[in-house]
Write a structure and sequence with these properties.
CATH topology of the largest domain: Beta-Lactamase
Shape: rod-shaped
Low-confidence stretches: 133-139, 215-223
Radius of gyration: 40 Å
Oligomer: single chain
Largest sheet: 5 strands, antiparallel
């Protein structure tokens, strides 16, 4: 294939790549016979144009760095003004393995970097200083659950009136089975909800416990 025909085909590829990668990617076609830039899209990234020449030794370096497929992918580079780029090169050889042309892609990753920083900030977890993560056995949690168990037991005792001695005994029997009284502050909570004194509660509990073994050991809160 003649050089002119090869370059014409490659220009079409360069244009297609520019449509794929968008305005933040400069796509450049180099004629390695003339050692100059012959086609460019999005030249605003490096402020270069057709006819631009680079030091011939740069071509040699890129060719020597290329892998077995003639590719150098994703290395860091900079524009003359210091803008960081992600650069890739594709070397096109003829049937005699002679380098004839090169397509270069220079990606301005500033907007991608900003997007990544935004996402990192949105998903970053910040530990609370000097504040341990609350455990399942946290005292407040247990107390809340105890209160819930007490209320549920009262509700389940209906239609027996909680105002009667029999009703209160039945509720206390259920709470004893569930181990509620092993929990800190359970006694005053029960007394408040049942409108009884602590002395009365302990008298009721002695009566309940004297009646024989319960279906669960006191001290084990069953939720």
């Amino acid at each position: 294939m003649k050089q002119e025909e090869l370059l014409r085909v490659l220009k079409s590829i360069v244009l297609g790549l520019s449509k794929l990668l968008g305005e933040d990617a400069e796509i450049v076609l180099h004629d390695l016979n003339k050692q100059e830039l012959v086609y460019i899209v999005n030249g605003h990234i490096t402020n270069r144009s057709v006819g631009y020449r680079i030091d011939p030794s740069v071509y040699d370096v890129v060719i020597n760095l290329a892998d077995a497929d003639g590719h150098v992918i994703g290395y860091g580079s900079n524009t003359a003004k210091g803008k960081s780029l992600r650069s890739s090169h594709f070397i096109i050889r003829d049937e005699d393995d002679v380098p004839r042309a090169m397509i270069c892609i220079n990606q301005d990753t500033a907007r991608l970097q900003a997007a990544r920083d935004l996402l990192d900030g949105m998903i970053r977890l910040h530990p609370l200083a000097d504040t341990p993560e609350p455990a399942f056995e946290d005292e407040n949690f247990i107390q809340k659950m105890t209160r819930r168990v007490i209320i549920d037991s009262i509700e389940k005792t209906k239609p027996t009136s909680v105002d009667t001695r029999e009703g209160k005994l039945e509720i206390l029997r259920q709470l004893e089975i569930k181990g509620v009284f092993a929990v800190k502050d359970a006694v005053p909570t029960v007394c408040k909800l049942l409108s009884i004194s602590q002395a009365t509660l302990y008298n009721y509990l002695r009566e309940i416990r004297s009646q024989g073994s319960l279906s669960a050991q006191p001290g084990t809160l069953q939720l």
